[in-house]
Structure formats: structure tokens, C-alpha cells
Amino acid sequence: MDVITKLKRDIVLTAYNAQEGHIPSALSCVKIIWELFDVGMGYNDMFILSKGHGCLALYVVLAEKNIIPKEYLDDFCKFNSELGGHPDSNKIPCVVASTGSLGHGLPIGVGMALAKKIKGESGRIYVLMGDGECNEGTTWESALLIRQLGLDNITCYVDSNNSSAINLSRLQTMFEYVSDCFYVLKTTKGDGVSMMEDNPEKWHHGTPNKEELDNILNELK
């Protein structure tokens, strides 16, 4: 079994055991997060998951990389758990920003990138946003600041999984005008699980029953 399939199984099983979580949003971005933590990021780099509701993807990657204990996944969303329904910087050392309210991750990332510039620190800030956040004014204000301040130490990925009606090519064109640090990635919400793929009416938030779980695990082999 390849690592991405294993991570997808971990996402589904963690949510099922907790009876909580945004599974499709996590499935659409887990490969992006894995690539960053496995080969993309270096020393002094920092990562912000702006689409905090997709936190299960981050949690399973951190567990797979032994950055957090795998046992943490068993307590997902339980009382006093380290792993809540959105990432908490007070509970997980490598989480540099608590996120959840959409449109806040990029402003935080811009501030961190500017701080690195001022202090002469090395390292890059990586921000992963959802396409729905591109409707927020804070996103575009922050993008324009990147251009105005000449910040070349920040990279932003947009997980474009059809959560928003924004036209993909137009979105890419707009970001390219602002800066070359933006990458709009076409993904599938619920990727790898046919019953969840592009079916947000039923699966944006919610967990499978036992029969559905068995079908999903049979699919993710």
C-alpha cells in the first residue's frame, strides 16, 4: 500500500472512531501536506494550514512522520485531546497558527514572512488555503501586501476542490498578477472515496456508518 492511500485510510478511521471530522476536505489536501513535510520543507520553514477544518490531513501526516505520537489520533476530538477539530498552536508544537476561521492563514503567513525578513532569518513560510477562502477580503489584501513588500519567502497553495464557485483559470490569473508565489492546485473533495467525491451535500462534515466504512476501506487498498 502506498503512503498516500495509507494516510487516507488513517483519516477515515480517525474520523470514524471519533464520529467527528471533515473527511472530504482532508482527503483533498493530504497529498499536498505529505509532499511538503516529506520532501518540500527544510530547516526553519514553517507551515500554516489555513483551511483548518481539513486538520485530519495534517494530523495523520504528523503522526506518520513521528512528529506527534500516533496515539494522539485515537483521542481526536475527545475532551482535553491534543487534536481538536481545528489545529491549536497551544497544543501541538509544530502548529504555528491556530486556524479555522477562513481567510486568516494567509495574513498570519504574510506577517511571519515579513518578520523573517526584518530579522534576517532564513526559511520559507508555506500556507495551504481552501478555494472558499478566496472569497475573503483578507486573502486579497494579504496577497497585495506580498507584492508590495516584495516577500519572496512565502509560498501559498490553494486547494481548489470545488468548494467555491470561483472560476479556476480566473483565480490563477488573478494570483499570477499579484505574485508568482501562488499555486492553484485542482483537487477532488473526498479524493479516493467514490461515495464522497464531489458530494458535499452529504459529506462535507460527517462520518460513515459501519457498512460505509467497510466499503471505503475496501476501496482504499
Protein architecture, described:
- It is built from nine helices and four strands, in the order αααβααβαβαβαα.
- A four-stranded parallel sheet has the order 1-2-3-4.
- The longest helix has 16 residues, at 3-18.
- The radius of gyration is 17 Å and the shape is globular.
- The chain is 43% helix and 10% strand.
- The model has no long low-confidence stretch (mean pLDDT 94).
- α1 packs across α4, α3 runs parallel beside α4 and α5 runs parallel beside α6.
- The protein has helices at residues 3-18, 23-27, 30-40, 55-64, 105-119, 137-149, 168-178, 200-203, 210-219; strands at residues 46-49, 125-130, 154-160, 182-186.
- The chain has one domain (3-219): Thiamin diphosphate (ThDP)-binding fold, Pyr/PP domains (Rossmann fold, 3-Layer(aba) Sandwich), CATH 3.40.50.970.
- By secondary structure, it is of the alpha/beta class.
Labels describing this entry:
single chain, about 220 residues, alpha/beta, Rossmann fold, globular
Task: Set down the secondary structure blueprint.
Blueprint: H1 3-18, H2 23-27, H3 30-40, E1 46-49, H4 55-64, H5 105-119, E2 125-130, H6 137-149, E3 154-160, H7 168-178, E4 182-186, H8 200-203, H9 210-219
Parallel strand pairs: 1-2, 2-3, 3-4
